[in-house]
Specification:
The protein is mostly beta strands and 183 residues long. It has strands at residues 21-26, 29-34, 41-45, 59-61, 69-78, 83-92, 103-107, 114-120, 126-133, 138-145, 150-156, 163-171, 175-182. This is PKD domain-containing protein. Residues 42-62 form the PKD domain. Pfam families: Por_Secre_tail (PF18962).
Length: 183
Amino acid sequence: MACEDSVALELFYQPEAVAAFDFYETNNTVVFVNQSENSWDFVWDFGDSTAQTTDENPVHDYVVLNENVWYTVTLTAANQCMVDTIMVDILAFDIEELEGESLISIFPNPSNGIFSLNGKFPANEDFTLQIFNAYGQEIQSNRFNSFEGRINQNFDLSRFEAGIYFIQLQGKSQRQIVKVLID
């Protein structure tokens, strides 16, 4: 005669924690959007010697004094079994005008990537125009002249992914940085 017995076993599978985030900047305030998966505990380090936070979607103010500054933002995401960390370098711009008067407009903004930049600058001044993505990577650079004090430039960035981009115009007498949102 054989004995039989059965045991009910319940297995719990915890998916791997994946740290991920996006962000957008308004002046020197950065809004972080947590896109982590399978995680519920978070620790943010903003890379500027301020206190860490455990907020899920924090907002952080950076102090930028007349220069562009790189910060390494670290997000650690965890569940009860796994921990994952992502580090992203971001560029915080000094958005204020530096010298002289500049009237720049971008239309439409936000856009699908096709937009116009119009503005007034000192007449016949040579400028360098650089476009940076939100990670501070230069994606385009041109040189041009503000003929008769006007700048009228059309752009097509539709081949780039949606997000925040910065256009920096640097001339002899001034520098201007404007933000454009591609959706």
